[in-house]
Amino acid sequence: MNLSSFRHQSDSRYCFSLDDHRVLIRLAVGKECHLDEATLVYGDPMRFAKEHRYQKMEIRHEDRGFVYYETVMEAFPARFMYVFQIRAEGKEYYYSESGLDESYKFDLAFISAFQFVGENRNDFVLEKPSWQGRVFYQIFPERFASREDPKNKGYVNTPWDCKTLTGKHNAFLGGDLYGVIDKLDYLSSLGVGALYLTPIHPSKSNHKYDVIDYFDVDPDFGGKEAFRELLSKAHDRGMKVMMDLVFNHFSCFHPFFLDVQEKGRASEYYDWFFIDGDKPTPKPLNYRCFGYFYGMPKVDTNNPKVQAYLISIASYWMKEFGVDGFRLDVSEGVSHDFWNRFKLALKDIDPEVLVLGENWLNSESYLGNNQLDGVMNYPFLGAASGYVLGIRDAKETAEVLEGLLMRYKEGHNRMMLNILSSHDVQRFVTLCHGDKDLSLLAYAMLIFYPGYPMIYYGEEIFMEGGHDPDNRQGMAWGSKEFASPRHELFKRLLALRKEEPLTKGEVYIKGQGTLTLRRVYQGRAVTLVCNLTENSVPVQGRVLFGNRVAAGEVWPKGFAILDE
Q1: How many CA atoms lie within 13 A of 394 on its CB side?
Q2: Which one of the listed residues 142, 176, 329, 402 is annotated catalytic?
């Protein structure tokens, strides 16, 4: 038995409170080990040497390297010690802080047992009730809709229906917030519960990620009046609104950076940036930027004055406009210290505020209770695309999907923003080489996976587009797909998200020929069966609906949703 085959750490993703009366304990065991049994041995720290209880653990998840044993403690001391009793190949072992041993001295547990304190409610990671069951819809305001004919807007330089934007990074099509307001009834009928708007602040770019004034709304979008009306009418329809805030960098036209350019070291904002010299110069570039672009100077979020300024921005939009949450651009480039302060300040205004980061890979270090609630789940995109493109089979895909869940505590998993497309990657149907059946199957996976499903505008009508900027075309409001059976099927998928098994249920993922995601809550189960084999496969249970499914069989590239 190899010590390196075991992983556990108290007060981490391996041991955490689910709520104020349940604690989840997780033990990762390497696949090369074949255990007969794993048991949690626990008790009150003051009595553990002589009094301890035993609770059997069950295999709950399996990724590409580990099998995960879990148990949920529903009656436990507020503070407790614990070790793991392991049986394998006819032998008994104990796993503790000191390692793996064939026996355990309980009278010396105080120097080697794992310990956990489960009584601090402020440290619990809990999904926010008011966000449960919501489908997010990402809108790039410049490209979604316009109340006025864009041709009448003097700054517009590109036709709305332009199909190729390659090389046109400075194209303006003329979308605005009034256009979004006019489409709220459509979004509501689609099943959208939360709008995610990319930046709306004054900026010289079409994407607005180089912000000039954080306390205003770009006049081309309709200004503050349009945004206030959008929030009011979205809230009237039960929708939440999430702003995109850019705190990693400013625009080079931001007044604070302009002040530094003029005054150099004498500017009170000089130490807000990372400048190697007396004044910032673009050629040769002597200050840190986002992506080496001189127009986006990086901000020092370790500076207390910068922190106070950035917190005041989010506070303003919450207090004055009623913004419900924030997506935070390049959040992995911002200091942990700042996110701690930021989250605590916003929770004082509204405990239900949702704080999501743009982190592309493993984000465990950012998902503390007082930092981010969740992140944009690009690894889910990787898992889903790997499956539909044939890179991984059903078994490997199930392992990858389970492995993503094992990165974080359950509360964070339920607040991840799961995506298949965004303004930063090619549209999913384009990734699928135009195959709409494969795209639909992946969106069914998106709806069934724990977390918040996000639809990038136009995905519901299978808009195509390569990488930036071709993935940012004007919304195709004249598309024939609005009247197609596929669009209706897409709407049925989004509506399914409100069902309690998908909103609150546990998830069970298996890959054995077909890929299945089963969600269970209070005795009711809803199951997704995906078939990317070469043959039709039978399904058992009542089929609610699906694609390429008939007479109890799922055809290749099809899926079925079963109500059990």
Answers
A1: 19
A2: 329
Write b or e for each residue in 489-507: b if 16 or more Cβ atoms lie within 10 A of its Cβ, otherwise e.
ebeebbebbebebbbebeb
Predicted pLDDT of residue 153:
97
pLDDT at position 564, please? 81
pTM exceeds 0.90 = yes
Spatial contact of 561 and 555, defined as CB atoms under 8 Å apart: no
What is the band of 510 on the pLDDT scale with cuts at 50, 70, 90?
A: very high
434: alpha, beta or left, given left = phi > 0 and alpha = psi -120 to 50?
left
Phi, psi angle pair for 432, to nearest 5°: -85, 15
**337: enclosing H helix or E strand:** helix 336-349
- Percentage, residues of the chain above pLDDT 70: 100
Q: Say whether 11 is catalytic.
A: no
Spatial separation of the C-alpha atoms in residues 93 and 53, rounded to whole Å: 17
pLDDT band at 123 (very low <50, low <70, confident <90, very high): confident
Which residue from 375, 398, 411 is spatially nearest to 530, judged by alpha carbons? 398
Helix/strand/coil (H/E/C) assignment for every residue in 407-475: CCCHHHHCCCEECCCECCECCHHHHCCCCHHHHHHHHHHHHHCCCEEEEECCHHHCCCCCCCCHHHCCC
Nearest 5°: CA angle at 551, between 548 and 552?
85
Give the DSSP letter of residue 33: -
Cis peptide before 469 (omega within 30 of 0): yes
358 is catalytic: yes
Helix residue spans in 99-237 (DSSP H):
141-144, 177-182, 184-190, 223-236
DSSP 115: E
Q: Which of 40, 48, 38 is nearest to 23 (CA)?
A: 40
Q: Which two tokens mark 541? A: 């249970």
Backbone angles phi, psi at 241, to 5 degrees: -125, 130
Pair 397, 511: CB distance under 8 Å: yes
> Two tokens at 188?
């509501």
Q: Residue 477, class by beta-carbon neighbours within 10 Å (0-12 exposed, 13-18 middle, 19+ buried)?
A: middle
Amino acid at the residue 5:
S
Among 127, 358, 410, 460, the active-site one is: 358
Place of tokens 């190949």: 89
**Contact by Cβ (8 Å): 126, 19:** yes
